[in-house]
Amino acid sequence: MNTTDPLATLVLAARGGDHHAWDAIVDRFLPLVGAIIRRHRLSEADGDDVSQTVWLRLVEHLDALREPDALPGWIRTTTRNECLRVINVRGRTQPVDPLEQHGGLDAVTDDAVEDDLLAAERRQLLREALAELPAGRRELLLLLLADPPIGYEEISARLGIPIGSIGPTRARALEQLRRTKAIRSLGPDPVGGELR
């Protein structure tokens, strides 16, 4: 089991006691939990406590989760609630000037958390889609996205393909990526022109 496995598969395996599936779930959603903790500006110790509590609650409630695809929302809500609980217990509420434009309650927005969640889900979806491609096409796309950029000459040498075929192969790989099960699960043409 790894983080590229479908979420439903990981949840079912974790329910059955598969430790690798559990680790893959934690690895997949740990960035989301961390982002929510950072948005609430908790200390490192409090953040660690929140994270541990979220995973403990997931262990306790995993069998009750009816729809595996609802897991990201469950994690987001549980993490947010636990952050608020810790803030309340620690007495960290501070008076806020409602006329002040920056900071205060407006500094922590659901939109920002949702943006982090969406970005994490997109990265995971892209990893799943890339895993569905043949190794050669996956390697080509990853080399084309390398930072710092790699020149066509080096890509040609690494993959053993002519420079002139890199562009057409890239186009075919992107088209195949659009048709992967992972990308199609988003609905009709979810990526639009983003991969072109």
User: Counting H and I runs of at least 4 residues, what is the number of helices?
Assistant: 9
Number of structurally distinct domains: 2
Strand content: under 5%
- Counting helices, strands and paired strands, the structural category is mainly alpha
State mean pLDDT (0 to 100 scale). 81
Major sheet details: none
Distance between the termini: 31 Å
What is the level-2 CATH architecture name of the largest domain?
Orthogonal Bundle
CATH fourth-tier homologous superfamily of the largest domain: RNA polymerase sigma factor, region 2, helix turn helix motif
Q: What is the count of β-strands?
A: 0
CATH class of the largest domain: Mainly Alpha
Poorly predicted parts: 189-196
The geometry reads as elongated
Radius of gyration over all CA atoms, rounded: 21 Å
The helix-strand sequence is: HHHHHHHHH
CATH domain fold name of the largest domain: Rna Polymerase Sigma Factor, Chain: A
Helix content: 55-70%
Key terms for this structure?
single chain, mainly alpha, Rna Polymerase Sigma Factor, Chain: A, Arc Repressor Mutant, subunit A
